[in-house]
Write a structure and sequence with these properties.
The protein is an alpha+beta fold. It has ten helices and nine strands. The protein has two domains: 147 residues, dinb family like domain (Four Helix Bundle (Hemerythrin (Met), subunit A)); 206 residues, Alpha-Beta Complex (paralog of FGE (formylglycine-generating enzyme)), CATH 3.90.1580.
């Protein structure tokens, strides 16, 4: 779910399709939601030192202080500049905090705002944003909602970085034991409508809603637990070549991969044995499924099952769930309000994840939300739910 800000030199504020129109909340509630989200962001990092904020904790993640500057620059670009028509507060920072112009690999090597300066930038942008919204209103609410959810998504991205560095606040990660019984749910064949409907906010890659035919299949009642994953690992799961794809085996061999330390740590703690396994890559999820005579669900299967059985992403299991599907646009896809949110990631490189995790803000989580990442990635709070062909097929 890369949180990206498009190139300011090339991006144009596209005319939004009619189906993206929103019934805006009251201005008072809108401003309160922005402030509440900001309080959550600042509280998350309140206990960290300047060194922790500025350090590169992983080559695939940003320094946390870069995320702060990026959040401010994104809000300034979209709500103050493109929505309200104001000049950028800090045009000199536009390229620095553009996710494409300044990729993660170089963010630890460049000069950026320090922690105090980044906090000041956040506060100054918010003050002029609030004033602009009071004067000009929310419009149809689309840009406002996009900016708000962007910060919510970054709180999860920052938690990923903090998890790598063992900097998560007390009580996190909040992964609780799975309570659903073992077994499989039978999903009958037939068509269903996948994707977001025309009401309310959705990201461009969730639309247009369209009909797909899905053969009968079975899906596990809950994600794979830490106990099951340790059983796979201790039973030769990382040595049995026949369970791995060629690409997955090459990755495993090159990096000497075994189970993620968080899985073993959770399995050894009170209640952690039956919590969902977290920090699982797509390569590992695929191998685990093969080892158990199963497979990963397609995202169409996942959404059909979720709509029938679970209804809300909060019931799904507190980890993102890998699907077998590559990340592509739906038939009739239209990029809005900028193509760098989704379209530039389409192709066979990325795999789709569905659901939500313990760190996902409820405002972001939905049954139609499509997360995505590369098959080797384990920094995300991801696990796996198995699927298999129906015995009735």
């Amino acid at each position: 779910m890369p949180n990206t800000m498009s190139r300011t030199t090339a991006l144009k504020y596209a005319e939004l399709p009619a189906h993206s129109a929103l019934t805006p909340a009251s201005l008072e509630h809108a401003l309160a939601a922005l402030d509440e989200t900001r309080e959550d962001t600042l509280e998350l990092i309140a206990g960290l030192s300047e060194e922790d904020l500025e350090r590169v904790h992983s080559p695939i993640m940003s320094p946390l202080v870069w995320d702060l500057g990026h959040i401010a620059a994104y809000e300034d670009l979209w709500l103050a500049h493109r929505h309200a028509g104001l000049e950028l507060l800090r045009p000199d920072l536009a390229e620095l905090y553009d996710a494409f112009e300044t990729p993660r690999a170089v963010r630890g090597e460049i000069e950026m705002l320090g922690p105090a300066e980044a906090r000041d930038y956040l506060a100054t942008v918010r003050a002029r944003t609030a004033q602009a919204l009071k004067l000009g209103g929310l419009g149809d609410g689309t840009v406002y909602e996009m900016v708000l959810r962007h910060e919510c998504q970054h709180s999860e991205t920052m938690r990923q970085t903090m998890a790598i560095a063992s900097l998560l606040p007390p009580g996190e990660p909040a992964l609780t034991p799975l309570t659903a019984p073992e077994g499989w749910i039978e999903i009958p064949e037939g068509p269903f409508a996948i994707g977001a409907d025309d009401d309310g906010f959705a990201y461009d890659n969730e639309r247009p809603r369209h009909i797909v035919d899905v053969a009968a299949f079975q899906i596990a009642r809950h994600p794979v637990s830490n106990a099951s994953w340790m059983g796979f690992s201790e039973g030769g799961g990382y040595e049995r070549r026949e369970w791995w794809s060629a690409e997955g085996w090459a990755w495993k061999q090159e990096h000497d991969i075994t189970h993620h330390p968080a899985i073993a740590a959770a399995a050894g703690g009170a209640g952690g044995t039956q919590s969902p396994a977290c920090h699982v890559s797509w390569f590992e999820a695929d191998a685990f499924a093969r080892a158990h005579g199963a497979r990963l669900p397609t995202e169409a299967e996942w959404e059909k099952a979720a709509r029938r059985e679970l209804q809300t992403p909060a019931a799904i299991g507190a980890v993102w769930e890998w699907t077998s599907s590559a990340f592509h646009g739906y038939p009739g896809f239209t990029a809005y309000p900028y193509r760098e949110y989704s379209e530039v990631f389409f192709g066979e490189d990325y795999r789709v994840l569905r659901g939500s995790s313990w760190a996902t803000h409820p405002r972001v989580a939905s049954l139609t939300f499509r997360n995505w990442d590369l098959p080797p990635r384990r920094q995300i709070f991801a696990g796996v739910r198995l699927a298999r062909d129906s015995e009735q097929a």
